[in-house]
Amino acid sequence: MVIAILALQGAFIEHEQMLDRLGVEHFEIRQKKDVLRPFDGLIIPGGESTVIGKLLQELDLWDTIKKRIQEGMPVWGTCAGLILLAKEVEGGTPCLGTMQITAKRNAYGRQLGSFFVENTFADCGKIPMTFIRAPYIEKAGPEVKILAQEAGKIVAARQENQLVTAFHPELNESPAVHQYFLNMVAGV
Ligand code: GLN
Questions:
Q1: Whose Cα sits closest to atom 2 in ligand 1?
Q2: CA distance 65 to 44
Q3: Could you tell me whether strands 126-131 and 115-120 are parallel, antiparallel, or unpaired per DSSP bridges?
Q4: Contact 147, 156 (CB under 8 A)
């Protein structure tokens, strides 16, 4: 199994370190030739969704990535990655728009909006969740499965091959969400 990590901006190194810990092969997507290499799943990291979205277009990566997601390639968006996958964005412009969710950008406030909690994720029990100027999911279509909530707001969800988390699992010790995504990629 090979995982590609979008490495245009943001917290991609931390995802690489977690995949190293789990012994999973990975490489960075920085330019067009990278996205044409074979891979089984894609991680879109946290960062600044407007910057990543602009670079996706400028580097001509957008169409290839969108098409592969629509064809069923497993993708996981953390934080800014969630915003980039959302069909609708409150406080921003939709980018890839492949997932039937409405993301509310900077939903916890811009400056003081970073916090840490422990909460239940899918069937993994309680896991650490670090939120950094995070969005939450305001609305989700009927095909979207809710995987985690924090204070009544949806903060992790899945729609078939697409996984999103408003928090940053790559910044904590627990590999639970990475393992969940790898199981998706493996088709478990
Ligand atoms: N607030 C950022 C955005 O709108 C997301 C923050 C993050 O990825 N940690 O893109």
A1: 48
A2: 11
A3: antiparallel
A4: yes
Residue in 9, 14, 79, 111 to alter for ligand 1 test, most ligand atoms within 8 A of Cβ: 79
**Tokens standing for 128?**
């650490």
Q: Kindly give, in sequence order, each residue whose CB lies less than 8 Å from that of residue 129, ignoring residues fewer than 6 positions away.
A: 116, 117, 118, 119, 121, 148, 150, 155, 167, 169, 172
The pLDDT value recorded for residue 157 is: 98
pLDDT given for residue 112 in this prediction:
66
Centre of ligand 1 from the C-alpha of residue 129, in Å: 15
How far is CA 81 from its chain centroid? 4
Is residue 168 flagged as an active site residue? yes
Please report the pLDDT score of residue 13 as a whole number. Answer: 98
If one counts every other C-beta atom within 10 angstroms of the C-beta of residue 160, the result is: 13
Give the chain's radius of gyration (CA, Å). Answer: 15
- Residue 112 Rama label (left phi>0; alpha psi -120 to 50; beta): alpha
Query: Catalytic: 26?
Result: no
Examine the residue annotation and report whether 79 is marked as an active-site residue of this protein.
yes
- pLDDT means per 10 residues, the chain with 188 residues, are 98 98 98 98 98 98 98 98 98 96 92 88 97 97 98 97 98 97 96
- Looking at residue 109, what is its pLDDT? 81
Q: Which of 14, 26, 95, 168 is catalytic?
A: 168
